[in-house]
C-alpha cells in the first residue's frame, strides 16, 4: 500500500491514496492553517473507525442480520504535551436494524477489535481502546 502526501501551502497537505482518492489535510487557523480539512490525527482516528465499522457491518451482513444503519461515535483523549499521542480511545457503536440480537452485535464488535481490524489492533498496541454499543430497532 502506498500513499503520497504533497505540501500545498502553510500547513495544508494533499494526501493521495494508491487507489486514486485524495484528501486535503489542514491545520487550525491558530497554527497557520485555514481549517480546510481534517487534521492528520483526526484522519488517523477516522481511518481506524472506518476500518472497524466496515468489519462490523460485514460480519453482521454475513450472518444475515437485518442491519440498516451503523454510526460510531468516537471519543479520544490525547497527551497534553508533545508528542500529543492518543492516550485513550472509546468507540460507541449505534447499530440499527430489525430484530438485531445484542449478543450478535457484541460478537461482531469483538471480532473486529480482536481479529480483523488491522488499524485498531495496531493502535491498540500502544493505546487502550474500549468499545460499547447500543442496538436500536428500525422502523
From TrEMBL:
It comes from Chitinibacter fontanus. This is OsmC family protein. It comes from the Bacteria. PANTHER family: PROTEIN YHFA.
Amino acid at each position: 500500500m502506498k500513499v503520497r502526501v504533497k505540501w500545498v501551502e502553510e500547513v495544508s497537505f494533499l494526501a493521495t491514496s494508491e487507489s486514486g482518492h485524495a484528501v486535503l489535510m489542514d491545520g487550525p487557523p491558530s497554527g497557520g492553517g485555514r481549517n480546510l480539512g481534517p487534521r492528520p490525527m483526526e484522519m488517523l482516528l477516522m481511518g481506524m473507525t472506518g476500518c472497524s465499522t466496515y468489519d462490523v457491518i460485514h460480519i453482521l451482513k454475513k450472518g444475515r442480520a437485518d442491519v440498516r444503519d451503523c454510526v460510531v461515535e468516537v471519543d479520544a483523549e490525547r497527551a497534553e504535551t508533545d508528542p500529543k499521542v492518543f492516550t485513550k480511545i472509546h468507540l460507541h457503536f449505534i447499530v440499527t436494524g430489525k430484530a438485531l440480537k445484542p449478543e450478535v452485535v457484541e460478537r461482531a464488535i469483538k471480532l473486529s477489535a480482536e481479529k480483523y481490524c488491522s488499524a485498531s489492533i495496531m493502535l491498540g498496541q500502544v493505546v487502550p481502546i474500549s468499545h460499547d454499543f447500543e442496538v436500536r430497532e428500525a422502523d
